[in-house]
């Protein structure tokens, strides 16, 4: 075993032995490290306003309205162009957000604690499908939903989690959901039901009144993506546990901001390797086509980074009805990912593959050697701010970022 293989074994081992637990809720400014009042976190690698895509700009406008810093889009843009807003990637603050991924200072966030290694990760709350902030929509109905989540949903979940016996073990939930037809990224129907099951008695007992309990449980039950955000934060906690391992060629983060697709490597520190993001290939909602689509966006590729999502598609053949393809395609997607990974997950197993562990630990050496890039399941945002989701599909990161990372690794380590 080479020194690189030893480093990769340590990195993937730390990822797999992690135990991410949802321990509570908090307000972003109070719990996310380095979160300032003038900071908006966003998905993907660093980016400036002039290069931002429509959906990311729309989500930023919506967040500034939500924060009460702007009354409308014009005032929000004036704040940005006047230098009154600082943009930083969620990943730089132990956080992740789906699609545009915007987290503003007063937003409620999930708190995930890795009980094995002690690190924490954070994510915002999920709004559901369609015309929502994370897809760049910011109209009054979007704001109304955000206010309800902030004023009713988050405090109720906080009280429930505070009353729980140590929180909700997301790793265990994910392992069970994979055996029930989920892949943990675009299909979270089983996981969201398990999430509801864990929360329901706590909400019923600790909500301020029966109507609030009913409203909260209905909102979670009606949202098949309810568990996605804590799952993403759990995957961030697992991936971060394998980050910073000297000599490791494993990918510790994959993320997109709607303009660039970026990766970070365990043994190469904080540096991002980026190239233009691609438009996903998938199924579109009625009235929309690929001409309406924005380039790929979101931090949710942290799920594939941690060994689920498209890497576990063999566990979720029904997902092809949402992202296109056939059940055989789902099986082949997982089989292909074994070619570029360092291990098979000890906790996330796939029934249709005789309970083989999902492929985990993307190795940039294997990506470049085989010419196989990671598969990603994703939603599709409209390219214009304010419209929202228009479909879902599959995408792959550009090969150039893996090649650039491998050259940088060789330069740093003298190979």
Q: Secondary-structure blueprint of this entry?
A:
Elements: H1 3-17, E1 20-27, H2 28-31, E2 39-42, H3 54-66, H4 73-81, E3 86-89, E4 95-96, E5 108-114, E6 120-124, H5 140-162, E7 168-169, H6 170-178, H7 189-206, H8 210-222, H9 228-241, E8 251-257, E9 260-265, E10 273-276, E11 281-284, E12 297-298, H10 302-305, H11 320-323, H12 327-337, E13 341-350, E14 356-362, H13 364-370, E15 376-381, E16 389-395, H14 399-413
Parallel strand pairs: 2-3, 4-6
Antiparallel strand pairs: 1-5, 1-7, 5-6, 8-9, 8-12, 9-10, 11-16, 13-14, 15-16
Helix pairs in contact: 1-9, 5-7, 6-7, 7-8, 13-14
Task: Provide structural commentary.
The chain has helices at residues 3-17, 28-31, 54-66, 73-81, 140-162, 170-178, 189-206, 210-222, 228-241, 302-305, 320-323, 327-337, 364-370, 399-413, and strands at 20-27, 39-42, 86-89, 95-96, 108-114, 120-124, 168-169, 251-257, 260-265, 273-276, 281-284, 297-298, 341-350, 356-362, 376-381, 389-395. The two termini are 16 Å apart. α1 runs antiparallel to α9 (228-241), α5 crosses α7 and α6 crosses α7. The chain has 2 domains: 20-232, Enterococcus faecalis V583 domain (Enterococcus faecalis V583 fold); 242-413, v583 fold. The strands form 5 sheets. Strands 4-6-5-1-7 form a 5-stranded mixed β-sheet. It has a 4-stranded antiparallel β-sheet with strand order 10-9-8-12. It has a 3-stranded antiparallel β-sheet with strand order 11-16-15, with no helix packed on it. It has 14 helices and 16 strands. β5 and β6 form a beta hairpin. It is of the alpha+beta class and 415 residues long.
